[in-house]
Amino acid sequence: xTTTSDMIRAVVTQRPGDSTLMEWTTAPVPVAGPRDCVVExxxxxxxxxxxxxxxxxxxxxxxxxxxxxxxxVIGHVVEVGDExxxxxxxxxxxxxxxxxxxxxxxxxxxxxxxxxxxxxxxGDVGLNGGYADRVRIHAGSLVKVSEDVPLxxxxxxxxxxxxxxxxxxxxxxxxxxxxxFTGAGGGVAIxxxxxxxxxxxxxxxxxxxxxxxxxxxxxxxxxVIVTQRGEDFSAAxxxxxxxxxxxxxxxxxGAATFPFAQKTAARHGRIVLIGEVAPxxxxxxxxNFRDRDLTLLSALSTNRxxxxxxxxxxxxxxxxxxxxxxxxxxxAARAHEYMESADPAGRMLLVRxx
Length: 354
Ligand SMILES: [Zn+2]
Ligand SMILES: [Zn+2]
Prior knowledge:
It is built from 9 helices and 17 strands. By secondary structure, it is an alpha/beta fold. The model has no long low-confidence stretch (mean pLDDT 94). The site of one zinc ion has 5 residues, from loops.
């Protein structure tokens, strides 16, 4: 692909469908509006969100094709709008998933900008996303990051920010408590294991993938319980906790594991949902739930404050993104195929093309 001064290289997806529709081609150069920065992309994470958008079966309301996917960007600011106060050309930054939020609504003003009704999700709408040489983004959706952190820090918002939201801000996890992650080898969950261990919790991982056991332990789990897919793991979790159960369950899988996960919660335990992407119904034992005074919660992605906090932890070497595979940007379709077929332990990263 060759470019001219008014074009960038990008992976453009013309319409929903399989990964062969993702074409390495050119797109117009993004131009900063008054409150935007343009970022030259060093690397962009590949998120299940991107795969779902590309497949076209979810989020059609907020998606506009043709689209450049990708919202997990690390790069350098190359252009700054007239009204931007906090960034200068040359700053290294990571993105917080959204191209923009309004900053004015009740959700934005209460730290819940991931619920902003006027938000534009980066990489959901039109030819402006992270699978490209450059991307335009509202300055309010950027966090500065040190030149010393690795490219992998691109994925910090989704993998660490979401878990910080779930563990610290939603579940109110405290030092010394016990946390269970279901689907613990998944791309987001394995980073939750790492963060929870850093937060001083005892961490138990449940997985149906024996091949991921070592990776989950390496991420910081104290114990890993391996069961068959669809098998009840609650007895093993209760045994590991002397019968008392876990204080916090981070439910990454959803309907398939929730009935078992609920049984592992200690009295007064908190269950946080962060995984489910498919509409499914489950049976729910209300009496048992109330008898044990459980709380059911949900963590909706992440906000900029949470991203700032985890980026600072990355800079101190306390958190380290786990990357299954790096590919050049032009091979984004291969990354999607790998996500759909191989279920990697860790994230996929697309790196700027030479
Ligand atoms: Zn993501
Ligand atoms: Zn808003």
